Each structure stands twice: as structure tokens, then as C-alpha cells.
Amino acid sequence: MKRALVESPYSGTPEQIIQHTRYAHAVMLDCLRREESPYFSHLLLTQVLDDSNEADRRLGMRAGFMWLMVADIVIVAGDLGISSGMQIGIDIAKGWGKPIEYRNIQNWEALVPSYEAVVQQKKEAAILSREAVPQNEIDEMIRRTANGLTDSYSSSPIFKG
Description:
The chain contains 6 helices and 4 strands. By secondary structure, the chain is an alpha/beta fold. Strand 3, helix 4 and strand 4 form a beta-alpha-beta unit.
């Protein structure tokens, strides 16, 4: 799998952020189907940083650019345009000589559920998860996972395939 740093839009009005997040989810799915391991700093870091605060925004962008050093490729997802933050990332990637691939995802909205559908799905999953898995099965999953992770990374089932 290639390590892919993804540039896609994020900021805007609350409605735009919902749209941009859905779009990023579609791009994420597209990357995974291409056997790429995508990283979206703007989706992850905005969960703890305030994107409307300039200091937080700069901190998040610097943290995201650290991942650029280990990325095999930079994906620029352009269906919704290229934001100023995306352009900074593109310019830095070019300066570092990273391969850049511009992509458009045909019919991206059909690839991911609506915001309302996701909320409903999460509510239903929370209810089911409280009832569905007996504690002894959870304990067994934890034991198996711990045993798998004590092996070297190369032999771990997670990294095979």
C-alpha cells in the first residue's frame, strides 16, 4: 500500500464543512479501493483544533506537513475546487519533489451516505453494540489482538495481504 497524503477542501460554513467531510469520505474510500493508505490531517486534527483560530490552523497545517515527509504520493481531490490551504500543501509537496496526482471522483455523492443517514446509523449501532456482543467474546477479541500485536510487525495479520 502506498502512503497517500490527501489534499481536499475542509473549511467554510457549517453546511460546506458537512459537504467537504462527505467528499473527503468518498475520496478516502476511493484511495482504499486503490490500495492506498490515505491520511487526511484536516479531518483528524480539526477534531481537537479550531480551524477558525489562525494559530490552531497553522499548528494543524504544520502537523499535516510532517506526514508529507513519509508520504509516497500526494492526492489532490479537486471536485470541489482547490482551497488556499490545499494550494499551500501542493506548493510544499512540489518543493519537496513529492509525486502529486490530481483526481476527480465521479458521482462521489453516491459513494457515501448523507449526514443524516450517518447520524441515524451511529445511533442504531450504539444501541446494538450495548446488546450484541457478550463480554466473554469481547475479552477473547482483546486477547487475540494482544497476542497478534506481540508478534513482529511483519508477521502480524494486520500487515499481511
